[in-house]
Amino acid sequence: xxxxxxxxxxxxxxxxxxxxxxxxxxxxxxxxxxxxxxxxxxxxxxxxxxxxxxxxxxxxxxxxxxxxxxxxxxxxxxxxxxxxxxxxxxxxxxxxxxxxxxxxxxxxxxxxxxxxxxxxxxxxxxxxxxxxxxxxxxxxxxxxxxxxxxxxx
Length: 153
Hints:
Layout: E1 4-14, H1 17-22, E2 29-42, E3 45-52, E4 61-68, E5 71-77, E6 82-87, E7 91-98, E8 101-116, E9 120-131, E10 134-147
Antiparallel strand pairs: 1-2, 1-10, 2-3, 3-4, 4-5, 5-6, 7-8, 8-9, 9-10
């Protein structure tokens, strides 16, 4: 993998598990972010740093992704501050700090699946999302880290 990479993160939320099986992408709450970033491998882990611009906020959000074994961590700093840990088979909790207030978030991670090639890392995360101790939705995140100049699959 090269140092310069393209980071694609696509998340889907499924409020109703009956809808999940038959829903089209247009019917689901889908969010996608694509940003340039930098990739590092150290201490048996993959590290990716990148910045993203969020509508309505003056400064960028600085992101750090760490992937090791069956655990995916993303740390965000800037207009929003949070460290979310997705550890397969575990429920983790964190404070999500936003300009509008703090939210207690729980991530009940069902699966962290990783596929690595010479030029890419593909990660699929399936989890249940809770906010302030209330179940919100079953969700999944697809993360694609691709060497710059390669296509995202």
